[in-house]
Write a structure and sequence with these properties.
Length: about 280
């Protein structure tokens, strides 16, 4: 399905289940597959309790890649148009991964009274990667027997992108991450990175919201893309947040530590019901 924001911008989306709306936003260069693969095993257990709405961001997946929309502010405006049309005045839950977590904070600043809970998976906080506090890569928990049977170039690609590299994590990474990267429009992504920051300081807006709904922030202790230190300040502006820093996980936390990821998300959903 597609949402037509403008004649030259159509946003691809999929819906699953029924009930309270849940908007799920993937990270930069990926697509719907990343979020459906991570969250559907959890949500499908309560299929009619939550209506999951998965989107492909502009320039990614099957959405339009018109360069005029290659900025975080314009993408946020498109998402706001989508919410207004398909969620309207209803309350909803919000989940964002990496760059999608940055966009989710922008949506929280706009829809505070409608968002009953926010879930941020390895969220990007600092748009300028030179300013991020990220750890240097020095660990590897690779299955060397598995990697040794691969083409050397393929083995290097997997070990460079997965801290926990084995057959299972590599297959998920290929299916959920790389498949989306192959679809993304590289020219759009390059232009977007030049307009990566919101004009408005979203942190300052959220600080003044007194947002007190159950929140979840999941980070990887060895995340070399967005780190975990820049996210720590979110505890000061999200007083109902659980904050997890998982050892032996990089930026693919949901793939490298699936059991803990599932448990944390399930706990968040339980808090949304029991502790409101």
């Amino acid at each position: 399905m597609f949402y037509e924001y403008a004649p030259d911008m159509k946003l691809h989306y999929e819906t699953k289940g029924g009930g309270k709306p849940v908007l799920l936003i993937h990270g930069l260069g990926c697509d719907i597959n990343l979020m459906t693969s991570a969250f559907e095993p959890i949500f499908k257990k309560e299929d009619q309790a939550y209506k999951r709405i998965y989107i492909d961001l502009p320039g990614m997946g099957e959405s339009s890649h018109t360069l005029a929309y290659a900025s975080s502010d314009k993408i946020l405006a498109i998402l706001e148009g989508f919410v207004d049309k398909f969620i309207g005045q209803n309350n909803f839950l919000l989940i964002g991964q990496s760059y999608g977590g940055y966009l989710a904070q922008g949506l929280l600043a706009h829809y505070k009274f409608q968002i009953d809970g926010i879930n941020l998976l390895c969220p990007m906080i600092v748009p300028d990667n030179k300013q991020r506090k990220v750890p240097k890569k020095y660990l590897s928990f690779a299955n060397e027997d598995y990697l040794s049977n691969l083409d050397p170039q393929k083995a290097d690609q997997i070990s460079n992108n997965l801290l926990v590299a084995n057959r299972k994590t590599a297959e998920r990474w290929e299916k959920e991450v790389i498949s989306g990267i192959k679809k993304s429009n590289k020219e759009f992504l390059k232009a977007l990175k030049k307009n990566y920051s919101f004009i408005v300081d979203v942190d300052e807006v959220i600080k003044n919201l007194d947002y007190d709904k159950p929140s979840l922030i999941m980070t990887g202790r060895q995340d070399t893309i967005v780190g975990y230190k820049d996210q720590w300040h979110l505890l000061n502006i999200l007083p109902r947040a659980s904050f997890a820093v998982l050892d032996a996980t990089d930026h693919n936390l949901q793939i490298e530590a699936p059991n803990i990821f599932n448990a944390l998300v399930q706990n968040w959903l339980e808090r949304l019901v029991k502790f409101v």
